[in-house]
Amino acid sequence: MQINLHQTHHTIADFNEIFSYLKREEEKGTFENSINLFPELFLCGYPLQDLLLTKEFIRNYHIFLDDIKTWWKEKKRNNSVLLLGGLDYRIENDIPAQIKNVVLELSDHKSLEVIYTKCLLPSYDIFDEAKYYSPGKEASIWTYQDLSFGILICEDMWFSPHYDFNPVEKLHEISKDKTLNGIFNFSASPFHLGKENSRMTRAKEISTQFSNIPFYYVNRVGSEDEIVFDGASFILKDQTISHKALSFKEDLITDDLQDAKLVDQKCEESKSKYSFETLFDTQLCYDTKPPKLLKFDDDSARTALHALHLGIMDYANKIGAKKFLVALSGGIDSALVLTLLGLFKSSEQEVEAVYMPSQFSANLSYEISKKLCDNLGIKLTTQPIKFLHSAIRNSFKENFEALDGLADENIQSRIRGALIYARSNQTGSIVINTSNKSELAVGYSTLYGDSVGAISPLGDLYKSEVFELCRYINKSYQDIIPEEVINRPPSAELREDQKDEQSLPPYEVLDAILEGYLSYKYDMKDLIDLGFNVDDVAKVVRLNNLSEYKRAQFCPIIKLKAKSFGFGRRIPITKKF
Amino acid sequence: MQINLHQTHHTIADFNEIFSYLKREEEKGTFENSINLFPELFLCGYPLQDLLLTKEFIRNYHIFLDDIKTWWKEKKRNNSVLLLGGLDYRIENDIPAQIKNVVLELSDHKSLEVIYTKCLLPSYDIFDEAKYYSPGKEASIWTYQDLSFGILICEDMWFSPHYDFNPVEKLHEISKDKTLNGIFNFSASPFHLGKENSRMTRAKEISTQFSNIPFYYVNRVGSEDEIVFDGASFILKDQTISHKALSFKEDLITDDLQDAKLVDQKCEESKSKYSFETLFDTQLCYDTKPPKLLKFDDDSARTALHALHLGIMDYANKIGAKKFLVALSGGIDSALVLTLLGLFKSSEQEVEAVYMPSQFSANLSYEISKKLCDNLGIKLTTQPIKFLHSAIRNSFKENFEALDGLADENIQSRIRGALIYARSNQTGSIVINTSNKSELAVGYSTLYGDSVGAISPLGDLYKSEVFELCRYINKSYQDIIPEEVINRPPSAELREDQKDEQSLPPYEVLDAILEGYLSYKYDMKDLIDLGFNVDDVAKVVRLNNLSEYKRAQFCPIIKLKAKSFGFGRRIPITKKF
C-alpha cells in the first residue's frame, strides 16, 4: 500500500478537466494499491465565492458527482482509495440551505461518502469561509483495512483564539491510546512569502505532539484572480521532510507505507501555542525600529518570481489570452513588468511594448526602453502623445479653460491609458498593469491612466522592493535590465523636471511608514514614536486614506505578502479622515 | 417617562460629530425623563469593514468612550437613559482578540455598560459580520425602574435555517410569565425597494407572538459607498404603526409610556416562520413565467428617487465634493443622471454637463442634450472628439495599423473618459457614472470609457427601469426630460447607424433573462423551459460571465434591490465559462 499526494492544478468549476485528470491517472495505474489524497475542494476549485450559490454551478457539480460514481462502479478495483476534497450540499426547496467543505471517500466500499467536515472556517483577510460554509464540529480518525489516519482540512491544523474549537487538540484527545499511521492535511492554502516555512514548522509541531507521527500535507496549485496557490506539498517523517513536491507546478509525490512505523498515541501535554494564519499575521515585529521591510535574499526573490510567473500566466491561460501588452515609460516599474513577461513567456505567447513619449519625456527614457526591448528580444513601438496632448490642450482652451497643473498632468496619463487599450483591442492582447504598492498606497497614479490593466504583478511590492527584485534579476540574468533605469531618480515625467521625491518622502522612508501602517501593528502615534517625521507620517496616512476610491477600481493584484491591497483589505471609501 | 427613537445620520468614525449630536440633544433637554434609543453601531458607524481592526480606529474609539463617560458624570441627570449601539472590544497584546456588536447603557447607574450582544451576524450578500464579530448567545430582558423590555439588534428579529439559534424564540421563552412593556430593535438595516414593508410585517408578527406588545424599531440613516440606510424607524402598537419617522432623513420620534399597557406574557405557540433578510431573498417568484421585472408604481418610483438622492448626495458630502459633472450622450441613461442631479442639487452645489460628439453622433443627440440642459437650467459645453479621434486614427495607421471594429469604437469612448476627467480635474468636480444594470450585466460598455465615474446611480436599474423612472419623473415634473430621448432607439453611436438591438436582445427580453439569472432562482435550463429563446439565454449568460473583469473595476453602485452588482455579489473572474 502506498500514499499518493496529488498536487493538482485546475480551473474553477471545470468539471471536465477535473474528471480527465482522474481518468488519466487511473489509466496510468496510479490508483492501484494506494491511498490517493487530493487537495481541499479538488472537485470544484477554490475560492468559489458566490458561484457556490448559483443554481447552474450546483446543478453541474451534482451531475459531475453522479458521473464519477458511475465511472467508479464500472470496474472492480484493487485496493484503490481516493480521498477527495469537495462540497457537501443540503438542498431544500432548490435552495442551498447548508454547504460543507468536506473530504469524500471513493473506494471499494464507499461511493463519494463524506468522511470529514472542515471545522475551522477562516474568515479574515481574503477568506470568507464562514459566509458560505457550515463548520464541522468533530475530529475524525479515518480507517482503511488495518490503517488509521487523523484528518484535517487546511485551517484545521492552525488555531487562534478567534476560534472556540481546536481540531488538533480534539484529534489528539480521540486518538489517545490508539495507534495512528499518520495525519492527512487536505489544503487549498494561498501563497505568501514565508508561508511554506510556517506550514512545515506547524506540521513538525503537530507531529511532535502525536509522538512523531508522519504528516501528509497536500496542497493545490494555480492562481485565481489575485490568489496564488503554491502547492509545495510535503510528507514529514521523524521531524524530517522526507518528500517534497514542486512549488508552483503540478506534481505527484508517493510514499510507501511499508516504511511507516505505527505510533502508539500516549496522552501527552499539548505544546501547540502558535497561530500563523490569522488576521493579525504580519511581517512586522513590535520591537523592530523602524519597521522592517522585506529584504529579498536570493531564495525569497526566486520564490517571488515563481509566484508572479504563475500569477500572470495562469490568469492569461484561464481567460484565453496569448498576447501581452506593456506601456513602457522608461521607469523601473514598467521595465520590471516587461522583463518578467520576457522571462516568463512561452513560445506560443507574444509580448509587445509600446513607448508613448510626451514633451516631458527625457531621451534617456527612450534609450532605456529600446535597450531593454533589445535585451529581451521584444518589439518596441513608439507612439508619441505630444501632438494629441497639445490638440487636447487647444480644445480645452477653446471650450473650457487652459489645462494646467494636475489636470494637464493626468490627461497625459489618460491618453496613454486610452491608446494602450486601443492597441489591446487591435491585437487581442491583455494589458499588464505596472503600478507598485507604494504608489497604490498613496494614490500616486492616475485613475484610468497608468493604473489601467487586467492584472497587477507589482501591486504587492513596494518601490524599494521593485528595485531589489530588478537587482536580483540582473545578477541572475546578465544585467538584462539596463543599469540606467535602476540608477535614475524615479519620475512620472508629467511636467518639466518632475521627480517623485518632490511629492513624496524618499521611498525608503515612505515604504517603511507604509509597511508599518498597512500591516496593522502601528498607528500614527507609534510611527512618530519610532522616530519618523511627524509631517511625513501625517502626509502618508492622509494620502492613503484619500486614495481608497482609486484602489476600489483597481485590477486584481497578485498577492505576495501576508497583507496586500485587494480583496483581503476592505476599507470604506466614505468615512471620517 | 417617554421613549425617544433617535434616527441619526453620521459619517463613519466621525466621533466628534457623534459626540456633538449627544451634547446638542442633551442641551435641548431631550434626554430628561426618557429612554433614548440609538441605532445599531451608532457610536462608530456601519459598515466599518477592516477599519474595525486598525489600531488608529480602535484607539480613537476608546478615547471617545472615555470622553462620553466623563461628560456624563459631570452632572446629575434626571431619569435619563441612553441605549446606544456600539462596539465591545476584547484587546489582547494590542490585538482585537474579540469584537462584539452591542447595546450599551448610559444612565444614572451605568456608565456605558454592555446590556446586550447581537446574536445573529448576517453574512450574505453585502454582509460580512461573522468575519468581524463574535455572536452573543443569550436573549436579554432589560429593566429600568419598573419597566421591562426585550432587546434585539437588527438581524436578531429575523430568522433563517442558516442560523442555529432564533433570538426571538429565545426572548419569548425567557419572557414567559413575565410582564414586558415592549421590544426594542436597534438597527442599521440597508435599504432596498420593498424592505420597509418586510420590516413592518415582521414586527407585527413578533408583536402578535408576544400578545400584541409594542415594538420599537430604530434604524440609522445615511449612505455608505453603495449602501443606503433609509431610516424609516417606527413604533408599532396594537398592530398599528403609531409613530413613523421620515425615510432617508434624520428624525426623532417620541412615545409617551403612559399610553403603554402592560402585557402579560403567556406561553404561546410560535408562529414565526418567515425569513426575509436571507441570502436567497429575491423579487422572483418561481411560478411566475416569465421572470417578473420590478414595475415602478408612483410609490416605488418616489422611494427609488429618495434613495438615489441620499446615495449621491451623501457620497458627495462625505468626500467633500460640491460640483458634479456628467457626460451627456443624447441617450436616456445620461439624461436621467443629469435630471437626477438637477432635481437633487442644493443651492451651494453646481452641476455641469459636457456633450462630446463624434462623427457618428446624430444631430438629435445634441438637440436632446441642449433641451434637457435648458429645462434643468444646467450649463452645457460641447467638446467635440471628432478631430482627436481622427488624430488617433492617423497616428495608429502610422505606428501600428488602421483602427477599425471594436478598437475604433472603444477609443471614442475612452477619449470621452479622459476628457471628462480632465474637466473634473480642472473644476474639482466628481464625475457621476451613467451605466445601467443591463449594460453592466452583459459588459456592453467600455472599460475606462463610458464606465468611468465616482459613483453609479443607475447601476442597479435595468434599462427598462431607466425608461420607467424617466416616465415617472416626466409625469411628476412637467416633462422635464425631452420625449425624444425616451422614444429614440438606444444606441452607443460609436459607428454608423449603430443600435443596441444589433448586439443585444430587445431590452424587455434581455432584462427579464438577466433578472431571472442574476437573482439566483433560475439557471439556463429554467430560463429556456420558461420559453426564452435558447440563443438569447446562452448569449446573455455568456456575456455576463465574460464581463466579470469589467465589473471588478467598476465604481460603487447605489444599491436599490435585494440583489445588486458590487460588494454583495462576488464571482471569480477566472473560472470555467
Strand order of the largest sheet of chain A: 5-4-3-2-1-15
- What best-fitting shape of chain A do the alpha-carbon axes yield? elongated
Chain pair sharing the greatest interface:
A-B, 94 and 95 residues
Q: Return Rg of chain A in Å.
A: 26 Å
Q: Uncertain spans of chain A, ≥5 residues at pLDDT below 50?
A: 262-288
Mean pLDDT of chain A: 91
Q: SS-based structural class of chain A?
A: alpha/beta
* Assembly category: homodimer
What report would you give on this structure?
The structure is a homodimer of 577-residue chains. Chain A is of the alpha/beta class and 577 residues long. Chain A has 18 helices and 20 strands. In chain A, strands 5-4-3-2-1-15 form a 6-stranded mixed β-sheet. A 6-stranded mixed β-sheet of chain A has the order 6-7-9-10-13-14, covered by helices on one side. Chain A has a 4-stranded parallel β-sheet with strand order 19-18-17-20, sandwiched between helices. In chain A, a hairpin with a 2-residue loop joins strand 3 and strand 4. The N and C termini of chain A lie far apart (62 Å). About 5% of the residues of chain A have low confidence. Chains A and B meet through helix 2, strand 4, helix 6, helix 9 and helix 10 of A and helix 1, helix 2, strand 4, helix 6 and helix 9 of B.
